[in-house]
Design a protein that fits this description.
Layout (H helix, E strand, L loop, with lengths): L1 E5 L3 H10 L6 E6 L10 E4 L2 E4 L4 E3 L5 H8 L6 E3 L5 E5 L2 E4 L4 H6 L5 H15 L11 H8 L3 H15 L3 H4 L4 H13 L4 E4 L4 H13 L3 E5 L5 E5 L2 E5 L4 E4 L1 E4 L3 H8 L17 E10 L9 E4 L4 E5 H4 L9 E8 L3 H4 L4 H19 L3 H4 E13 L20 E2 L11 H23 L1
Parallel strand pairs: 1-2, 1-14, 2-10, 7-16, 14-20
Antiparallel strand pairs: 3-4, 5-9, 6-9, 7-8, 11-12, 12-13, 15-18, 15-19, 16-17, 17-18
GO molecular function: oxidoreductase activity
Organism: Paenibacillus taihuensis
Protein name: Protoporphyrinogen oxidase
């Protein structure tokens, strides 16, 4: 069987790595850009390793990446973020984030009664009897919960920071998604970790595995321009060639799949996913020539909905000797839900808020900048997991293709969904092969 995988991000690499282990399958992984990794792309500048996005892994011991480590024999090291150094800023007050019981007791965001209640709610989620999964959205749950405003705000803020979305979007996250996500996270022995050396450590190993099989090739800078079905084969057209395949896996955002299949007989089946919106954030990376301050490893500004991670406090491999790498992220409202009319003014205001957060906690940073990169609108997830959006299934009825990526159905959020859906798509292709053979 000959398989084409379109998209060389985390999902496409994962699917190809699993399929490359099967002697009965050969294939091509197509990637339109000059490098693999998609939005988990990593590059070096002036001795700093910059990730195109955050590379924190939530609940590593219960994460799909741990399954892949075992099944694909990957090797990587990781380090846990020190949760005692995760802070929230609200009003003028700075307080430990209530990530566990110790921090919860210390936090000034909640009163003693609210702390007791919040612990009760978290404990109830862990005990898996929690009611939140029976509600359509977090907003519906909070409306009926009778919780104090501070508890509601804290719930919203937790969801903002794990899903990279604004509070108004946090209220639209389905109750079942929140229940599954936090159940997993609170049971984890390793809640927040960084893969040391960034995503490149994972993507490079997946690439090696694919190439070592001898049955797969990787076509960089070769985007797919068209696809047609003829005499039992799928013909994929690029600028360089036209080639036939038995199976096709789409490992790219649904928005791009729609473009590619426009005008084909398959287009109508994607209609339910056409109006999906993506999660976008502003990313503000600064590499500093020396450590200007290290008051904490993460500070979240609840007033302006943005945060700064001292990435190098956890992952020392990303900076030159003595340097510091800070990553600021601002949650953005999209045009439709946020009622933002003047986009430029809105983004300028976010930039100012971000810089003043740096000024407050990392004084002197402006004079120490060695590397700076600002992405005003970086896509974190191709489909925002909120009511009104629909994640793409790994297979759609009446369509012959397979789908994977962070906008598809799968375990976890963000990168984990890319890994888990890529793994699932590979399993479905294999099942298909077995059925064909029999």
């Amino acid at each position: 069987m000959k398989v084409a995988i379109i998209g060389g991000g985390l999902a496409g690499l994962t699917a190809a790595a699993y399929l490359s282990e099967q002697p009965g399958i050969r294939g091509v992984l197509f990637e339109r850009s000059p490098q693999l990794g998609g939005r988990a792309f990593t590059y070096e500048k002036a001795g700093f390793t910059l990730n195109y996005g955050a590379h924190a892994i939530y609940g590593l011991d219960r994460h799909t990446l741990s399954d892949m480590e075992r099944e694909l024999k990957l090797t990587f090291s990781s380090k846990q973020v020190d949760k005692r150094k995760v802070m929230y800023e609200k009003g003028e007050q700075l307080t430990p984030a209530p990530l566990d019981f110790v921090n919860l007791v210390k936090t000034g965001i909640l009163t003693m009664m609210q702390k007791v209640r919040f612990v009760g709610e978290i404990t109830a989620i862990i005990a898996n009897i929690h009611q939140i999964k029976h509600y359509d959205t977090l907003g519906d749950y909070l409306a009926e919960s009778g919780a104090a405003e501070d508890v509601k705000e804290l719930w919203e803020h937790l969801v903002c920071s794990n899903f990279f979305i604004t509070p108004e979007d946090a209220r639209r996250v389905p109750g079942s998604v929140i229940s599954d996500y936090y159940h997993n996270l609170f049971l984890s022995q390793r809640p927040v970790n960084y893969v040391l050396g960034s995503w490149a450590v994972i993507t490079n190993q997946l690439k090696e595995k694919i190439e070592q099989s001898g049955r797969w090739s990787i076509a960089l800078q070769e985007g797919i321009d068209g696809i047609r079905y003829e005499q039992g084969k799928y013909w994929l057209k690029t600028k360089a060639r036209e080639e036939e395949f038995d199976r096709v896996v789409f490992a790219m955002p649904v928005q791009q799949v729609m473009k590619l299949l426009r005008g084909t007989p398959w287009e109508p089946f994607l209609a339910p996913y056409e109006h999906n919106t993506a999660t976008e954030v502003m990313v503000y990376d600064i590499g500093l020539s020396h450590v200007v301050a290290r008051p904490f490893s993460y500070i979240s500004d609840m007033n302006h909905k943005l945060f700064i991670s001292d990435v190098s406090a956890t992952d020392h491999t990303l900076v030159p000797e003595g340097g510091q790498l800070l990553q600021g992220i601002a949650y953005l409202s999209d045009e439709s839900s946020g009622g933002v009319t003047d986009r430029k003014a809105y983004l300028d205001e976010k930039t100012e808020q971000m810089e003043s957060l740096f000024d407050r906690h990392y004084p002197g940073w402006r004079d120490a900048v060695a590397v700076k990169r600002v992405s005003k609108k970086a896509m974190v997830q191709s489909v925002k997991n909120v009511a009104g959006n629909r994640l793409l299934p790994n297979r759609i009825e009446s369509m012959p293709f397979f789908f994977c990526g962070d906008g598809c159905e799968g375990k976890g959020e963000l990168a984990e969904r890319a890994f888990s859906s890529g793994r699932k798509a590979a399993a479905l292709v294999l099942a298909d092969l077995k059925n064909t053979v029999h």
